[in-house]
Amino acid sequence: MPDRVSATPAPGWNALERAMGVPYPLWSPAALRRLVRACSESDVVHVHDCLYFPNLVAFLAARRARRPVLVTQHIGHVPYRNPLLRAAHAAANRLLGALVLGGADQVVFESETVRRYFSRFARFRRPAMLVQNGVDTQRFRPATAEERRAHRLRLGVPPDKPLLLFLGRFVEKKGLPVLRQLAQRFPHAHWLFAGWGPLDPASWRLPNATVVHSPATGELSALYQAADLLVLPSMGEGFPLSVQEAMACGTPALVGEDTAARILRGYHETELDFLRDVLAAEITYARTKRFWD
Question: What is the mean pLDDT of residues 23-32?
Fold first, then answer.
């Protein structure tokens, strides 16, 4: 961590994610008091996403202290399978989301799809900006054959089997139920699940699955480099950073129709040709056919 950056732990209650697969941590009263004090003492308050309870507290504290607020919004509509969750999330976006995004001094979206979604009902103080996720290509780069073998040895995965990687939160939105079926259907491939959450693949007790819980940031490139394919059947996302990082490591990505459609809708026509070229180069029949034959 840079010397000029400090981090303060915030104890909280995360039962909603464990029970329903919805990431919505509720901070302790002491942590919220520290947050309010930090907002009042700051020059600018920057929050990521508009619905998390600590972010709502930070927004209100900053407005009360007359501090400028910057909001980076990552997600829009999430098509939960549960109709009540889906309706509740949509209503929260229209009420709380519109309040926070409309009251912020500047809003930045990381996806054109998300910007279009909120622009239908939110009124921004200034024109919203689009700043897409970036990838550190010095850290996320293709590996040599020797590096790939070393990564697999360290991870304890078979060196001679196709290695399929999922990296993200273990929740419904990321497609964990689909991944469980795939892992059972394709036992000849080894599956590497890296992340955290209530739908823990370790509980499936599959002989062809290895789980890395809560990998550190410095471990991510090795996970991508060790894999033959990133599999991400998620819903309600723009262009997931894990897909970009995997492709920067030379590892192709297999995504669901929802994510693929959002990726293509989120780019201007001048960028689509480049994106199609990248996808064609990365997701090739020669690299993937052995997994699905």
Answer: 93
Distance CA 94, CA 268 (A): 26
pLDDT digits (tens, 9 = 90+) for 191-201: 999 999 889 99
CA dist 197 and 21 (Å) reads: 8
Q: Do domains 12-130 and 145-292 have the same CATH topology?
A: yes
Closest by Cα among 220, 225, 232 to 251: 225
The structure's pTM equals 0.74
What the block records as the tokens of 4 is 């000029």
Q: In this structure, which topology does domain 145-292 adopt according to CATH?
A: Rossmann fold (3.40.50)
Q: In the chain, which residue ranges form alpha helices assigned H by DSSP? A: 15-20, 29-41, 53-64, 83-92, 98-103, 112-119, 145-155, 176-185, 220-226, 241-248, 257-265, 269-282, 285-292
Q: Which residue has the tokens 């104890």?
A: 11
